[in-house]
Amino acid sequence: MAFDLQALHGYDRPMLKAEFPSATHFKYFVQDYCFNSDTSCKMGFRSGSKSQYICTSTPCEWHVTATRIRRKGSTGKSFEIASMNLVHCDSCTSTSKATERQAAMLPAVKALVLAQHDSSKESLVNGMQDKVLEQYTSQLENSYNYIPWLLTEFGRANPTCRVSLEADTKSRFYRAFVSFGVFVAAGPRSMPVMGLEAAHFKTKHYKGSSLTLVQKDGNGQNVVVAFAILPKESVDNYFWFFANCTTAGITVNPLFVDQKKAVVAGRALSATNIPVVLKFCCLHIIQSVKAHFDFSGPSFEEQIWNLQASTSRTMYMHKLDMLTAKYGYPLRRYLEDIPPVKWVVFANMANFADMEGRRLYKSATTTFTEHLTDDNGAMRHKVQRSLPFGALFKSMERAAKAVAERDAKARQWLQEKRVLTPFAKDFYLTQKSMANMYLTKPTTDGVYCVYRSTAPMHDQEMVNLNDLTCTCVDRDQMELPCRHLIAGLKAVNKMERILQAYGYCYTMEAYAQAYKDKRIDVPRVEAKVADPNLKSPPLVRAPKRKRKRDPPRNRRNPSSKTYKCRKCHGEGHNISTCPLVEETEVDVGHIMPSGEAYAGFTAPPGYSIAMFMDSVLDTNDASDCDSCKSDDMEDTDELGFCLDDLLNSSSNNNNSASMNMPAATGIMPGAMAFRAI
């Protein structure tokens, strides 16, 4: 359920100069707005004349500030919004949490309270908690029974999509994978750059992680190519994910990853023989720097972003010197240890000779949200706050909606006889407006020096009209005509060649071939069929009693316990440091993957336990252990959907991308055959 802000407060969203009778009314408005937006807020600052609310997620800079109205005619108690920032950062983990006032306004709570109006407050709360938890726990375990049906029906309705499901040795849910064939086939007609976003589930009933493979289409918008649910971000799980991507026909090059996960992903990719160049996410680098050096603030982050955008080594060193002068040499050494070709623009340009250099298309993060182009941020958080069934269904719904929207756009743009996508056209119009400020000077046959008339010595580039190239970053990285190339073509009256400067992914021909007359069908939840053989995964819950905090290391008493080795039965050491144990005798059973293909699903051909053990597994790396210690606490319903999502969504959302399928009678006992793109 979403609150009617217009009816309750007189405004449907925060806006500057919006007036409220008191600071309390302003607080209620901000809380209700955050509840509708699936986020939560807290008080950041409060005084007699100023009130500010900020996001509950510490790195997020979302805020709304109101000040007391002092002008004539006011009561002296009124407040108005003076400043605000309604954009949440990509790493924001804030979730919707109803206050007591908001909970009392929900119809379900009202009905329950009225039904037990003769009970005391304490007995009502305790009775509700016991009864809800008793029913809720049993329903959560049943949601995993529907995952085989969901993946089987989705694969049957969409033959170009690959689905995979694995259970552990006790037939408990282990991991799942789904790729979307329309976006896989559209890969060669999209920007050849991908991002791999890893995130923990934000629910206390499942402690796994998700992997989302993202790509940009020719209109500059994000599409999810593949989605997987894993117990942990280990090498084996990455290996299994990339093996499924290869089977589905996905080619990823280059690939943006988290710098801290680069070693894990690189070892997995090397085992699958996929020639992929890894790039590091700038946002994760900023977060790592903050954790190491305790730096913060928008000014510091902006300087790191500017360092990443350096278009020459000279500019890179100059910006690095500025960071050193302000923050010290330890930060410089940390940044210099990261190869520039992994994340800085200049090292990936054509004039910089490096085997790992790739065109980045002005991308710098795993989710391509550096320019606020991601319109699926809210959906991504809803997926993370659901159980595996709800997360898989939401990802399918998201893909079906994205394909339907692009199909409609392709039809409309073809009727308008467009040649290029709106993204490419807007880029051209912006560059064309700046081209009038540039002059040209011929140097050799077909090569011109293009410089700005107001700063001829500081802003000049070399344009080759023979092959339509330019030394600027816009032309080199975006594969689009820049202002220098436009000025050069204007100087020789050959503007008809401008269409040859566009990459194929920006043409309407490529966009229509990728999305016109395409669709993805999603099974109807009403026709779900349970498979009691698949059980819920094990869940390690928090201790019921408060755990005593250990004293600091410098204040601990020496332990009186004597270590005893179970190999030689000697004292003072354990088996890991025993001199009688050879390296090959180390037990790796605790880090060996336990997943196997579930009945009715096929494992990727390139993946096997033996290959993983021989080629990938590092017994000395603790990250290869499949255990997760994430601690989140979102609530879901009996099918694994986030409860806040259900409260805030309309009842007909599930019908937008559903298919009219007859009720299934059971899970197919044989192996499913999937067609790769």
Automatic annotation (TrEMBL):
<dbReference type="GO" id="GO:0008270">
    <property type="term" value="F:zinc ion binding"/>
</dbReference>
<protein>
    <recommendedName>
        <fullName>SWIM-type domain-containing protein</fullName>
    </recommendedName>
</protein>
<feature type="compositionally biased region" description="Basic residues">
    <location>
        <begin position="542"/>
        <end position="564"/>
    </location>
</feature>
<keyword id="KW-0862">Zinc</keyword>
<keyword id="KW-0863">Zinc-finger</keyword>
<keyword id="KW-0479">Metal-binding</keyword>
<feature type="domain" description="SWIM-type">
    <location>
        <begin position="451"/>
        <end position="493"/>
    </location>
</feature>
<dbReference type="InterPro" id="IPR007527">
    <property type="entry name" value="Znf_SWIM"/>
</dbReference>
<feature type="region of interest" description="Disordered">
    <location>
        <begin position="531"/>
        <end position="564"/>
    </location>
</feature>
